[in-house]
Amino acid sequence: MKIALIAEHTAPLAAHRGEPTCGDSVHVASLSRHLAKLGHRVTVYARKSTSDPVGRSRMGRGVHAEILAAGPDRPLGEHEEADHTGAFATALTGALKDDAPDVVHALGWTSGLAALSAVHGAGGLGEVPVVQTFHSLNATEQRAGLPERPERVRLEAAIAGRADAVAVSSADLRFELARMGLPRHRVAVVPFGVDTDHFSVEGGAATEPWSPRRQDRTRVITVSGPASGGPERLIESMVRLPDAELLVVAAAPLEVALDEDARRLELLAKEAGVDDRVHLMGPVERKELPRLLRSADIFVSADRYDPYGGAVLEAMACGLPVVARAAGGPTGAVLDRTTGLLLRSARPDTLARAVRGMMNEATTRSAHGIAGADRARSRFTWQRVAAETERVYRTALPGGDGLPLAVGDDAH
């Protein structure tokens, strides 16, 4: 098949090079590479937001990125996401008309708007099926305490209704779409993946350039954005964990010394009297991240909402037991009390109690790590995610019959 992956707000070339990027960028780079390994030709269409040039660039055998000019040449804030989607849709219409695909696959709601406009608008591609993937929905975000965005809720329901097939990354999202009126049989659960060749229990543990580890302390690690809420709660929980140290790794590009949220976290650690046990790091290149993860004893995800669960899967693949808030991607990745702990609340006292329990039970901690690595290898490889995505494409093509049982449906 000739596949067009529409990923408006991603940096596919940066992700392909292994640079720190967002979850959507990791997804599109990994998925496109493994779809190509299945024999397909893939083009990723994204809006120019980095120094990468406008136009077509090769990402690997069978995979190209097409960077389209639409709006400012920088990443957009959440409330700017849709401001330039009209311009992106116009550019996309011309690009798809010049290189018509067999299937169009949109990642995220603004990409879905652009894809439906390009296919069903003036581009004359009305027979090409559109597959829509949601990693998150505003309705589920609201339940996690994030702001309500009524216009986005309406548009997400409309996009799901118009798409020829819909994939979501968790059973929770499929349930939410059913509440919006989309029949469950029209939605496949295809989760986020992990590169288990790169993230694994094999290999050494890094110690530099961050502070050397104290052998008498348990190392807790998180990969998160400074403004996500998770690092703040973890720093506050360290007051109750005097025998632990915390390593906070930025999930996206930033300069810790200049970032206001990172500075706020440093001040919080100092005021709490735990700054000697809390280490804030900038983003780490993906080639180095497994060694950093393996240097820790416990991985914690305490963000208000994590739509992907990618960092959790990477930690599991490296053999770390996980403590995670049950919101978003981690709910499908972590098996409670088998690969780690899922918490309804991420209050500092709740986090401290869960982490302390793992610190005190070395046998249980080891068992969770072994089970997590096995689960990552058996359920969440990008090879399997690509195969399930291919099956969704085939159901959307003329003559396709019904969505398949996807990875997430039998993950438990």
Strands, helices and their partners?
Blueprint: E1 2-6, H1 12-16, H2 23-37, E2 41-47, E3 55-60, E4 63-68, H3 85-98, E5 103-107, H4 109-120, E6 130-134, H5 138-143, H6 150-162, E7 165-168, H7 171-179, E8 187-189, E9 218-224, H8 230-237, E10 244-250, H9 260-272, E11 278-281, H10 289-294, E12 298-301, H11 310-317, E13 322-325, H12 330-333, E14 340-343, H13 348-360, H14 362-379, H15 382-396
Parallel strand pairs: 1-2, 1-5, 2-4, 5-6, 6-7, 7-8, 9-10, 9-12, 10-11, 12-13, 13-14
Antiparallel strand pairs: 3-4
Biggest sheet overview: 8 strands, mixed
- SS field, number of helical segments: 15
Taken in chain order, the helices and strands follow as EHHEEEHEHEHHEHEEHEHEHEHEHEHHH
Strand count = 14
Spatial separation of the terminal alpha carbons: 31 Å
- Residues in helix, %: 25-40%
- Whole-number mean pLDDT: 91
Question: Unreliable runs, pLDDT <50, ≥5 residues?
Answer: 405-412
Structural class: alpha/beta
* Assembly category: single chain
Biggest sheet: strand arrangement: 3-4-2-1-5-6-7-8
Which geometry do the CA atoms define? globular
- Rounded to an integer in angstroms, the radius of gyration calculated over CA atoms is 21 Å
The proportion of residues in beta strands is 15-25%
GO molecular function: glycosyltransferase activity
Enzyme class: transferase
Protein name: Glycosyltransferase
InterPro entries: Glyco_trans_1, Glyco_trans_4-like_N, Glycosyltransferase_grp1
